[in-house]
RNA sequence: AGGGGUGUAGCCAAGAGGUAAGGCAACGGUCUUUGGAAUCGUCAUUCGUUGGUUCGAAUCCAGCCACCCCUGCCA
């Protein structure tokens, strides 16, 4: 850990070689060096039509990260140009999610704030003969557009003169025409091999109420028109988006140059995030929620930021993960194990330990005085001395995990078995002297003896013991619900469905298991959002479904287990 | 088929004519009061492929192959 670091936490020699920079930063460096811009400004531009997921987190970290790295600014701008799909509920959740991730936007904007400017710019486009009102129906426009291999045909309205276009456009705005009857189109090139350039629609008539502008407008700008101009109006220098917009870049540039916008924003595309064993498309997530395969948008199994948050993934871990995966243009699917690594990495240091028994086996310490209770002082986090310690009661009646005992142990099993001795962590060494079975032949109780000279879990004679188990004093333990979450899909790539299949076929039927667990007394005080490492089992967070005296814990992620894999 | 992209290890990903970074995963060793953590080590004679240029190519050139995106009045 003690290596020389340069400013920014990177090895200085790496800094000198330009390592640690993604291709976008290289482009920014070149832009700055060439004098194309004298500052850097980015933006995160979600459409408020749904919940953010971890794919958005990559974009958020990228945009805000680039702004910080270059001493620039990053805005949060809602791309709310389609009133039929957008709602205030989503803008609220998006702001909450971005803030939770740990970023503060320099300015908050809405594309709808620019509707007036955008309208005036459209009139200008008409005046200079670069846009026209087209009366073709949606279906006709599609037919006229041509195909991938055949050029399109020009609209019969393409050469209307500017005065008529202006008049028509104003009347569109005034609400004189019904929805779908006319659109404003850019006059570019119907024969372009890039379909986005075949006179794209700039404005459509849509008489629906907008969540922010109400009924002020009945014409709304399209993304391809509103986005570049909003960027330019706002002063964005580098407009970062995902690969599917690469074909739109010529149109993006066309808008900015045709209107001679003072700021020449530059669009740069990168590949969106995919993760194994989950889906990251809005459509599929919506289906999972609406069909009830999960319980709402913040279901802890979902990759939504609200789901991840409830699951107990720390924001810092998400940021570290996004940093680690890099930024490139190649399609890729990151192994979910990489995400889980950063979650464990963060939680290991930041989370106090506690003891919980999921599947109890009764242990009676036969030589321990009946009625006696000792308070054992237990370290909260061996990784962090400042986390302190807590008292945990110990008594004659103990609970351990069933899986910590084997009647006929395998060679590598070094937990409890007849005659074997193990350590109860922070308490005593115990030896299994006998056990009792029920009528089904299942072991239901262990009779052990303890060594009074091993208090705290240390043996004075230097005698070593191979296994260490977690435990609970039966009379002091209380019950709580534990939800054992696992990956949502058993299919590694749920998006790649076999022919005739559906992505839902890949769902994991056991993605959540509810367990009535026994918990140590200190856990009674856990507040919603408090995270713990349940010793030897995994990381858990108190869920909002808990009741006073009856908490609910979500398993965030299990601990790595090299034993199971070998067995 | 026309256009736009992308191919470096099981998964991400650096690399920019000088002899393949790093992380995840995996596998060994050490250590350990969590079968966790920590720690040490192993893991690409080769960069989709075939040719070419060069003293020298993952980097430059040409061809081929594979995959992704584009025919919303969605974003």
Structure commentary:
By secondary structure, the protein is α/β, with parallel strands linked by helices. It is built from 14 helices and 25 strands. The strands form six sheets. The protein has a seven-stranded mixed sheet with strand order 10-23-24-25-21-22-11. It has a seven-stranded mixed sheet with strand order 19-16-17-18-12-15-20, with no helix packed on it. A hairpin with a 5-residue loop joins strand 17 (429-437) and strand 18. Helix 3 packs across helix 12 (315-325) and helix 8 (223-234) crosses helix 9 (249-258). The two termini are 34 Å apart. The chain binds one RNA strand of 75 nucleotides through helix 6, strand 6, helix 8, helix 13 and strand 19.
Query: What spatial order of strands do you see in the largest sheet?
Result: 10-23-24-25-21-22-11
Low-pLDDT residue spans: 1-18
Overall morphology: elongated
* Amino- and carboxy-terminal Cα gap: 34 Å
Write a concise keyword list for the protein shown above:
single chain, 567 residues, alpha/beta, 22% strand, disordered N terminus, RNA-binding
Short overview:
This protein has 567 residues and is of the alpha/beta class.
Helix-strand blueprint:
Layout: H1 12-17, H2 23-34, E1 41-44, H3 54-69, E2 73-78, H4 88-101, E3 108-110, H5 115-127, E4 131-134, H6 138-145, H7 162-173, E5 183-186, E6 201-205, E7 219-221, H8 223-234, E8 238-242, H9 249-258, E9 266-270, H10 282-290, H11 305-311, H12 315-325, H13 336-350, E10 353-354, E11 356-357, E12 360-365, E13 374-379, E14 389-394, E15 397-401, E16 421-424, E17 429-437, E18 443-450, E19 468-469, E20 472-473, E21 478-485, E22 512-519, E23 531-534, E24 538-542, E25 552-558, H14 562-566
Parallel strand pairs: 1-2, 2-3, 8-9, 10-23, 12-18, 16-19, 21-25
Antiparallel strand pairs: 4-5, 5-6, 6-7, 11-22, 12-15, 13-14, 15-20, 16-17, 17-18, 21-22, 23-24, 24-25
The chain binds one RNA strand of 75 nucleotides through helix 6, strand 6, helix 8, helix 13 and strand 19.
